[in-house]
Specification:
The complex is a heterotrimer of chains A (about 250), B (about 210) and C (about 230). Chain A is mainly alpha-helical and about 250 residues long. Chain A has one domain. Chain A is built from 8 helices and no strands. Chain A is globular. Chain B is of the alpha/beta class. Chain B has a domain of about 140 residues: Rossmann fold (3-Layer(aba) Sandwich), CATH 3.40.50. Chain B has a 5-stranded parallel β-sheet with strand order 6-7-8-3-9, with helices on both faces. The longest helix of chain B is centred in the C-terminal third of the chain and has 16 residues. Chain C has one domain. Chain C starts with 5 loop residues before the first helix and ends with a helix. The mean pLDDT of chain C is about 90. The chains are: A mainly alpha (about 250), B alpha/beta (about 210), C mainly alpha (about 230). At the B-C interface, helix 3 of B face helix 1 and helix 5 of C. Chain A: Required for the export of heme to the periplasm for the biogenesis of c-type cytochromes. Chain A: One of its GO terms (cellular component) is plasma membrane. Chain A: Belongs to the CcmC/CycZ/HelC family.
Chain lengths: ~250, ~210, ~230
C-alpha cells in the first residue's frame, strides 16, 4: 500500500509523468489500432447484415463506443477535476482539462453518426429523442468547460475554475437526463425506439465491445499525448524542460 | 500546545514566495511583524508589494513558504475580524453616501466601542460630507472615507496598500497619526509605498522588495 | 470591541444591495423592456395566429425570462469586483455563503421579480389560456430563484474574466434545461387540463436543494475565480 502511494506521488511529479507517459503512449496507440482493426473487420465484414436495417446498422460500431466514451471521458474529467480542486495537483488539473476536448470530440462523433444513422432509419437527420438530446446537452457542457478554461488568463486558476464547472455539470447531468426523458414521454409523438443492445446477436456484440476497447485505448493514448504537450507548455521555464530541450537539441 | 509568548510576532513569514504562471512575482522573503510595530514595504512598481499584501491578507494563496499569524499557521478563519486589508480599490459604493458605506462596513467587520461612522467621518476630515454620495467626492476625499474604516474596525493587523496615494499634506499627516495611534494601542501594520517620502515614523522597519527581472 | 453579528451582516448586505438598486432604479427597467421586446418579436416572426401563439405562449415567456435573467446576471458580482467591495466581503469575519445568499436574494428581487410581475402581461399578449396563467406564475416563482442560484455559481466562476456574457450563456443555458422542461411541462399540462402538480413539486425540490448547495458552491467558485 505504502509503495503504491509512493509510486503515485512520484508519478505526480511532472518530469516523471512526462517520461512515463512518453513510454506508455506508443503501446496504447498500438493496442488502439490493433483493437480498432479487429473490431472494424468483425463489424464491417464478419457480422451479418441486420434483417431490418440492412447494412446501415453497422454505424453502431462507431456510434455506440463513442457514446459510451462521451460519458466515460466526462467522468474521468470530473474525477481528475475533483483531485485537482482538493489537492491542488498540477498534473490533475492538466489531465482534467485535456480530457475535455477529447470528450467533446467523442460527443460530436456520437451526434454526427447518430444523425447519419437516423436518416435511413427514421427518415430524418435529427429527432428530439431523449438520448440524442441528452448527448447534445453533454456537448454544450463540454464546450462550456473548454470555453471557461480558455477565458481565464492564469492557467492553473483556469483549470481549477473549469474543473469546478465540470463538477457542477456532473451533478446536473443526471437531472438533465431525467428531465429530458420525462419531457420525451410527455411529447409521445417523436419517440423512436432504437435497437436495444439487449437483443443484439453475439456476432455483432463482440466487434462492438472490441471497438469500445479500441476507443478506450485511443482515449488513453490521446490523453497522455495531450497532457505531455500541455505539461511542457506550462512548465516551460523549469529546469527539467530546459534539460530536455538541450538533450533534444544536442541529439 | 503551548500558548505563544507575548513577545512572539503577530505576523511572521518564512521563505514566502509567490509565482504567477510559474513566473516569480516576489520572494522568497522572510518577515516578522510584532505588536506595536509598523513595517514599511518599499519597492518599485511591479516589485510585488501589492501581491505580497494580498497573500498576507489571505486573498491569494502563498506559492511557497509559511505564514504564521499569532503563532499558528495562517488560516482564513483566524485572520477574519483581526486583520483589515485596505486595497488599491477602495470598496466604496459611489451611489451611497459616506455614512451608508461605513454603516455597511461596520455591520460586516464590527465597530470599535465609543465610535460611530459619523464620528469617524469627522475624524478623517470629512465633516459635512457624511451624507454626500461618494460619487461627488474627490479622489483624496474618497481615500479619506476609506481610511475611516481604520478607525472603526477593531482589527489588530492592518494591511495597507499605498495608503498615502492621492492624499494631500494633511491627509498624509492623518495616515501617520492613525498609524502612530494604532502602534501605541499595540496594533501591527504593514504599509506599502513606492516612495517612502510620506512616511514619518523613524522607528519603523523597512522591507525592500526588488524588482524581478 | 464588538464584532458584528451574522444576522446583522446578512441584513446589511441585503439592505445595501437593495438600496443600490433603488438608487439606480432605472436599470431595473432594462430586463423588463428586453423581455417585452423579445416576446413582441415572436408574433412578427410566426404570424399573429391566435391558436399558434396560445400553444407556444408559455414556452416563449419562460425562455424570454430566462434570457433576460441571463443578461442581468453579469451585474451580480462585476460592480463589486471592480470597486473592491468584493474583497471586503471575502475578508469579512462572517460566513461567506450566507452573505452571498443575501446578494443572490437581492439580485433576484431586483431582476427576476419585475419579470414575474410582467409575465402575465406577456402571457396575455400571446393568448395563453386563463387556466394556465396561475400555473405559469407558480412555475416562474419556483423556477426563477433556481436560475438565480445556479447562475450565481457560474457567474462567480467567470468573475476573473473580461466580457463574460457569451461564455456565461454557454455555461449556464445547458444546465437550465431541466428548469425549462419542468416549468413548461407544468404549464402545458395545465393547459390540457391534466394534473400539473408533479413538475411543480420537482421544481420545488430542486429549489430546496439549490437553496442549500448553491450559496456554498458560489462561495467556493468565487474563491477559485479570485484565487482567494
Amino acid at each position: 500500500m505504502n509503495t503504491l502511494a509512493l509510486w503515485f506521488h512520484k508519478l505526480g511529479s511532472p518530469p516523471t509523468f512526462y517520461r512515463f507517459a512518453g513510454a506508455l503512449r506508443p503501446w496504447l496507440l498500438a493496442l488502439a489500432l490493433l483493437a480498432g482493426a479487429i473490431g472494424l473487420y468483425g463489424g464491417l465484414v464478419l457480422a451479418p447484415a441486420d434483417y431490418q436495417q440492412g447494412d446501415a446498422y453497422r454505424i453502431i460500431f462507431i456510434h455506440v463506443p463513442s457514446a459510451w466514451m462521451s460519458l466515460f471521458v466526462y467522468a474521468c474529467m470530473a474525477v481528475a477535476g475533483f483531485v485537482a480542486l482538493v489537492w491542488r495537483i498540477k498534473l490533475a488539473e492538466i489531465v482534467a482539462m485535456e480530457c475535455a476536448p477529447i470528450g467533446a470530440t467523442f460527443t460530436f462523433i456520437t451526434l454526427v453518426t447518430g444523425s447519419l444513422w437516423g436518416k435511413p432509419m427514421w427518415g430524418t437527420w435529427w429527432t428530439w429523442d431523449a438520448r440524442l438530446t441528452s448527448e447534445l446537452v453533454l456537448l454544450f457542457l463540454y464546450l462550456g468547460v473548454i470555453g471557461l478554461y480558455y477565458a481565464i488568463e492564469d492557467r492553473r486558476k483556469a483549470a481549477r475554475a473549469a474543473a469546478f464547472l465540470a463538477l457542477v455539470g456532473i451533478v446536473n447531468l443526471p437531472i438533465v437526463h431525467f428531465s429530458v426523458v420525462w419531457w420525451n414521454t410527455l411529447h409521445q409523438g417523436s419517440t423512436v425506439r432504437i435497437l436495444g443492445p439487449s437483443h443484439i446477436a453475439p456476432s455483432m456484440l463482440w466487434p462492438l465491445l472490441t471497438m469500445a476497447l479500441a476507443a478506450k485505448f485511443y482515449f488513453g493514448a490521446s490523453l497522455l499525448g495531450r497532457a505531455r504537450v500541455a505539461l511542457l507548455a506550462q512548465e516551460g521555464g523549469k529546469d527539467w524542460v530546459r534539460a530536455l530541450a538541450q538533450a533534444e537539441g544536442g541529439a | 500546545m503551548t500558548t505563544s509568548p507575548p513577545t512572539a510576532a503577530l505576523l511572521e513569514a518564512r521563505g514566502l514566495a509567490f509565482a504567477r504562471n510559474d513566473e516569480p512575482v516576489f520572494g522568497p522573503l522572510d518577515l516578522a511583524l510584532g505588536r506595536g510595530e509598523t513595517l514599511l514595504v518599499e519597492g518599485d512598481n511591479g516589485s510585488g508589494k501589492t501581491t505580497l499584501l494580498r497573500v498576507l491578507a489571505g486573498l491569494l494563496p502563498a506559492g511557497a513558504g509559511e505564514i504564521r499569524f499569532d503563532g499558528a499557521p495562517l488560516r482564513r478563519e483566524a485572520l477574519a475580524g483581526r486583520a483589515l486589508f485596505l486595497g488599491h480599490q477602495l470598496g466604496l459604493k459611489l451611489d451611497l453616501s459616506c455614512i451608508e458605506n461605513l454603516r455597511h462596513f461596520v455591520a460586516l467587520y464590527g465597530q470599535r466601542d465609543g465610535l460611530t461612522p459619523a464620528a469617524a467621518i469627522d475624524q478623517v476630515g470629512l465633516a459635512g460630507y457624511g451624507d454626500e454620495p461618494v460619487r461627488r467626492l474627490s479622489a483624496g476625499q474618497k481615500k479619506r472615507a476609506a481610511l475611516a474604516r481604520l478607525l472603526l474596525a477593531p482589527a489588530e493587523l492592518w494591511l495597507l496598500d499605498e495608503p498615502f496615494a492621492n492624499l494631500d499634506r494633511h491627509g498624509i499627516a492623518l495616515v501617520n497619526r492613525l498609524l502612530a495611534a494604532h502602534a501605541a494601542r499595540g496594533g501591527a501594520a504593514l504599509v506599502t509605498s513606492h516612495g517612502a517620502v510620506s512616511f514619518v515614523d523613524p522607528s519603523a522597519r523597512h522591507l525592500c522588495l526588488e524588482l524581478r527581472a | 470591541m464588538r464584532p458584528g453579528s451574522t444576522a446583522a451582516a446578512c441584513a446589511a448586505v441585503l439592505r445595501r444591495d437593495l438600496l443600490l438598486a433603488w438608487r439606480r432604479r432605472g436599470d431595473a427597467a432594462f430586463p423588463v423592456l428586453y423581455a417585452l421586446i423579445v416576446a413582441t418579436l415572436f408574433p412578427f416572426a410566426l404570424g399573429p395566429e391566435d391558436a399558434l401563439l396560445a400553444r407556444i405562449a408559455a414556452g416563449i415567456v419562460l425562455v424570454t425570462v430566462l434570457l433576460a435573467m441571463l443578461l442581468a446576471l453579469d451585474a451580480l458580482f462585476r460592480p463589486d469586483l471592480e470597486d473592491g467591495s468584493l474583497e471586503l466581503l471575502l475578508l469579512a469575519p462572517q460566513p461567506l455563503p450566507l452573505l452571498l445568499g443575501m446578494k443572490i436574494l437581492a439580485h433576484w428581487i431586483t431582476t427576476a421579480l419585475p419579470l414575474i410581475v410582467i409575465a402575465p402581461l406577456l402571457a396575455t399578449m400571446l393568448h395563453l389560456p386563463a387556466q394556465a396563467q396561475a400555473v405559469l406564475l407558480a412555475a416562474l416563482l419556483l423556477g426563477t430563484p433556481l436560475l438565480s442560484l445556479l447562475g450565481a455559481v457560474l457567474v462567480a466562476l467567470t468573475a476573473g474574466t473580461y466580457r463574460s456574457g457569451m461564455l456565461l450563456a454557454l455555461m449556464l443555458l445547458p444546465l437550465t434545461v431541466p428548469v425549462v422542461i419542468f416549468a413548461a411541462g407544468a404549464v402545458s399540462a395545465a393547459e390540457a387540463g391534466l394534473p400539473h402538480l408533479a413538475p411543480l413539486l420537482w421544481l420545488g425540490a430542486a429549489l430546496a436543494l439549490a437553496l442549500v448547495l448553491a450559496p456554498l458552491a458560489c462561495a467556493a467558485a468565487l474563491r477559485i475565480a479570485l484565487d482567494a
